[in-house]
Specification:
heterodimer; A: 628 residues; alpha+beta; 3 domains; twelve-stranded mixed β-sheet; two-stranded antiparallel sheet; 24 helices; 16 strands; 11% strand; elongated; B: 223 residues; Rossmann fold; four-stranded antiparallel β-sheet; 9 helices; 9 strands; 38% helix
Chain lengths: 628, 223
């Protein structure tokens, strides 16, 4: 009969006390395991480079952590955008050589509580997660030409009931501007669970995303309000869409400047660093006056640095009011809101005003350039801008401004374009949307996997590309892993240490409970020990039996706690997955857990030492003479 | 088989003085002997058994068992020797309550370092008439049955010498004779020498050799 069995019999003999101390140990170990596993799994999924499939995130300048939380984890508040053309730099531009894969993301919409992410099919074709390819539980990836195609994550499918073939309407998640888009996207496929934040995403074709009018401009006009659409204003709307990211401030500034002088426009443009600068380069071709106009464009109508194309067009537009208008009109087509805004005719109406503002901005840019050359155009633009102000402030003001600058021009200009585009818009909504000009596009972020040259790990090129991006004025690049590990080391790790310390303390207290339990039993056990000694057991043997008992109690409790701890993790894992997109299975283990068993043995040996020594020192002759 | 010579053992009193307990010039037991040891209470019978078993160490003198002077052994050596060569039956049985009858017998084997022999343990329990009680805990056995288990346990390691300290004192008179018969018979079968302490004259008179400790323990005589 082994010492272990003898010890186990002794534990059984005092079942109640033993099980109570065992339970306290189980409780402690359970908490340790839960903290370890949950933290470890989160740590792993947040900090594991390979888990993402890319190593850089490029987005608007600002908080890097915000960028990472947004574009990688779909958490935190929405952030600014960057021009689509900047994304193109990663595809075939100056960044391309160091880039293996670049996938754009357009954020800002939601469906129920889940994020809607505009992207390209490459997200699932070229990126992987944790070294695994994305698989579809049903359906397939959407195709680039399937403008309103979408793929949804497993959690989304589970919680919303959406399935392949279903349609859904993203809604704009901009606080007071929140509303449901009219565009319907069709679920082409449902992802298998990935254990990543992507389980909680609805991925829509970016092309379709751009066809949602609000994504080209700030939506200041509530859809319900818009009474009578005005042709002129359609243009305006388009311009607004282009501006998507620019807040009301940008518009206001722009408008004000317009009203006063073209130069002021420049200033406004200056505020918006990205676009203005980008466009300035192409603009150089035009007159010095164009510069300001470009800025405005960039800010208001088009953030994309498509300057080369536009200046020309705008120039033509300037000369010919109609021509100039035609382009904006096209943009307007893409915007779905045009319908609502058709009744621009009069500035008095709020809706119209809003339209005017947008129009003023959008065209204003082109217009400014043109206007420099042709006075009429300028007036028209200013007029529009004036309207914009009206919207914000008061209709009356808008009218006044308009009067000053010349309503006629503005209206004429706008009307022509508006009419053309108005038709187009209607078509777009009902039948087929026309692609949005690249200049009007924006992306929230670009997920970049740097190239691996000569078999070297892609991470080698990441710092260089990051520096390149960050030194530029347009965007910033962040390494998700680094940002997250900074966050972790700053906040999460200390928290874990506190939690772990507490749970370890609980384990130690449980260990002391075992000590007390065994030690208290020593008086009654002294006789048993003496009997065993009389049967020939040595001092060391009885000492080891007591130690074994302490270890058995700790291990039995600890193993139970370990199992229950994993069960607990399994129980809360759906909640964690819902909160963070990080899925943790009950069977997910952490390396630190390997320390638990040896740790428990050490602890049990320490707490068992005292009673074991009492057993060792038992005076056999004396103990035998006392009756139990 | 057992030779004791010049054995002295004293306890230290609380005031520091020594209280002699044992002072035995010579005491012998031949192989297979069955001897009763009598004596009034407090004359050192149990202490003598402890010394013979190696549980207590004498101040001086030698205790040779099967040719080995256990007073020369270390404590661990005596433990081993005791496990190997000496069986011990207590007045209060001292079965371990957490173990079944069979396990109590096996426990006696497990300290000898020879491994446990379950078939021998069962055989012993059958011979003491407990073939149907093997998996019972001591609490579920009558006192008579408990003492039988204790006898089986004491003989488990095929000892050379069985020390029985008033094995029938706690057993009702109806079973007293059964226990004595059992012990004597199994000792004979196992060729084990028996030294039994008893206060009961009816038990003592069954033995060929009865020793009174007062007669050869000079410590007591002096006192």
């Amino acid at each position: 009969m082994s010492l272990w069995k003898i010890a186990w019999r002794s534990i059984q003999q005092r079942g109640l006390a033993s099980s109570l101390t065992g339970i306290s140990m189980a409780l402690g170990v359970m908490l340790v395991v839960a903290v370890l596993v949950i933290h470890g799994a989160i740590n792993q999924s947040f900090l594991n480079n390979e888990g993402l499939g890319y190593n850089l995130v490029v987005g608007a300048k600002g908080g890097r952590l915000d960028l990472v939380l947004n574009s990688v984890y779909y958490l935190a508040r929405p952030i600014e955008n960057i021009p689509y053309t900047y994304y193109q730099e990663f595809i075939d531009g100056r960044f391309a050589p160091t880039v293996q894969t670049a996938v754009p993301l357009c954020l800002g919409d939601t469906y129920e509580e889940f994020r809607v992410i505009g992207t390209t099919p490459e997200f699932f074709d070229k990126l992987d997660y944790g070294g695994k390819q994305y698989k579809f539980a049903s359906g397939r990836n959407f195709k680039a030409e399937e403008t309103f195609g979408a793929v949804i994550g497993a959690t989304v499918a589970r919680d919303t009931g959406l399935a392949t073939g279903d349609t859904f309407q993203p809604s704009h998640s901009g606080g007071p501007e929140a509303h449901v888009h009219e565009e319907q996207f069709t679920v082409m496929g449902v992802l298998e669970p990935t254990g990543t934040p992507n389980d909680r995403g609805l991925f829509i074709n970016m092309e379709g995303f751009y066809l949602i009018p609000e994504h080209k401009s700030e939506d200041e006009v509530p859809p319900t309000d818009a009474p009578a659409p005005h042709d002129d204003h359609e243009h305006d709307e388009h311009a607004d869409h282009g501006h998507t990211d620019h807040g009301p401030e940008g518009e206001h500034a722009g408008h004000e400047h317009h009203d006063e002088h073209a130069d002021e426009h420049k200033h406004a443009g200056g505020d918006h660093d990205h676009e203005g600068e980008l466009k300035d380069e192409p603009d150089v071709e035009g007159a010095s006056d164009d510069g300001p106009g470009d800025d405005d464009e960039s800010e208001h109508a088009e953030k994309d640095a498509v300057a080369p194309d536009e200046p020309e067009k705008t120039a033509t537009a300037d000369t010919d009011a109609e021509q100039g208008a035609s382009e904006p009109a096209e943009k307007a087509e893409s915007d779905g809101e045009d319908e609502d805004h058709h009744s621009d005719g009069e500035h008095g109406e709020e809706d119209k005003h809003a339209d005017h503002d947008h129009a003023g901005e959008g065209e204003g840019h082109a217009g400014d350039h043109e206007h420099d050359k042709a006075g009429e155009h300028e007036h028209a633009h200013q007029h529009e801008h004036a309207h914009g102000e009206e919207h914000e402030h008061a209709d009356e003001h808008g009218h006044e401004h308009g009067d000053e600058h010349g309503h006629e021009h503005g209206h004429g200009h706008g009307h022509e374009h508006g009419d053309e585009h108005g038709h187009e818009h209607a078509h777009g909504h009902d039948h087929a949307h026309e692609p949005v000009p690249i200049e009007q596009r924006e992306v929230t972020a670009v997920l970049v996997l740097t190239a691996s040259i000569g078999g070297a790990p892609p991470e080698l090129l990441a710092p260089g590309l990051m520096k390149q991006v960050n030194e530029g004025p347009v965007a910033q690049a962040a390494q998700p892993i680094r940002e997250m590990s900074t966050l972790f080391t700053t906040f999460v790790d200390p928290l874990r240490i506190v939690l772990l310390s507490l749970t370890v303390l609980i384990v130690i207290v449980a260990g002391i409970g075992i000590l007390v339990s065994i030690y208290n039993s020593m008086s009654e056990r002294r006789h048993e020990i003496a009997v065993m000694r009389a049967l020939g057991a040595g001092r060391r043997t009885v000492m080891l039996i007591v130690l074994a008992e302490s270890i058995l109690l700790s291990l039995a409790g600890g193993l139970a706690g370990w199992a229950v701890g994993h069960g607990l993790v399994g129980l809360v894992s759906p909640w964690i997955a819902d909160q963070t997109g990080v899925s943790i299975g009950a069977a997910q283990f952490v390396g630190y857990e390997l320390v638990i068993i040896p740790g428990l043995i050490v602890l049990a040996t320490i707490v068992g030492y005292l009673p074991a020594m009492a057993a060792y020192r038992t005076d056999v002759a004396k103990a035998l003479s006392t009756t139990p | 088989m057992l030779q004791i010579s010049e054995l002295r053992k004293s306890f230290r009193e609380p005031d520091g003085s020594k209280l002699p307990i044992l002072n035995i010039k010579a005491f012998e037991l031949a192989e297979g002997d069955q001897v009763v040891l009598m004596g009034r209470s407090g004359c050192g019978k149990t202490t003598l058994l402890h010394v013979i078993a190696g549980i207590s160490r004498p101040d001086t003198g030698s205790v040779r068992i099967d040719g080995c002077d256990i007073t020369q052994l270390s404590e661990a050596g005596r433990d081993r020797f005791r496990a190997d060569k000496i069986g011990y039956v207590f007045q209060t049985f001292n079965l371990l309550p957490g173990f079944s009858a069979l396990e109590n017998v096996l426990l006696g084997m497990s300290f000898a370092g020879k491994g446990t022999d379950a078939s021998r343990a069962r055989d012993l329990l059958e011979r003491v008439g407990l073939q149907h009680r093997m998996s019972h805990r001591p609490g579920m056995l009558s006192v008579g049955e408990q003492q039988r288990v204790a006898v089986a346990r004491a003989l488990a390691n095929r000892p050379k010498l069985l020390l029985a300290d008033e094995p029938t004192a706690n057993v009702d008179s109806a079973h007293q004779q059964q226990i004595v018969d059992l012990i004597r018979q199994t000792c004979r079968e196992e060729e084990v020498a028996l030294l039994m302490v008893t206060h009961t004259p009816e038990v003592a008179e069954q033995f060929d050799r009865v020793e009174r400790l007062e007669d050869f323990n000079q410590a007591v005589a002096v006192a």
